[in-house]
Automatic annotation (TrEMBL):
PANTHER family: MEDIATOR OF RNA POLYMERASE II TRANSCRIPTION SUBUNIT 30 (PTHR31705:SF4). InterPro entries: Mediator_Med30_met (IPR021019). The keyword Metal-binding does not apply. This is Mediator of RNA polymerase II transcription subunit 30. It comes from Pipistrellus kuhlii (Kuhl's pipistrelle). Its main location: nucleus.
Amino acid sequence: MATPPLAASGMAPGPFAGPQAPQATREVNTASLCRIGQETVQDIVYRTMEIFQLLRNMQLPNGVTYHTGTYQDRLAKLQDHLRQLSILFRKLRLVYDKCNENCGGMDPIPIEKLKQKNQQLKQIMDQLRNLIWDINAMLAMRN
């Protein structure tokens, strides 16, 4: 995700810098990164659940004969899921690092201030809900 600066790549900036030039100057929205991070975490949870499902269904070699083909298939699936899980964790780390980079100069908002803002937004939403309800009631009385 993070592309090296053009100076570090040894290429001069300009129209002939190559296919990496548009990506190097493009800014990524932090909110979009957070959404991507959330989706990645959901994928990680889903993959982890699949891994536990595969492990639960695998029989341990406790003297019982089992089909080596079935065992090999399940083992291959498990290894594939673990590989994909590793990729997802690397992707999440990149997103996390980019978010930290984008928010480096920002001061964190105190929790109390966030709670106050949330309460204000809740009150505004309640007022709007009541206003819409009143308008609907008035329209129903006209008909």
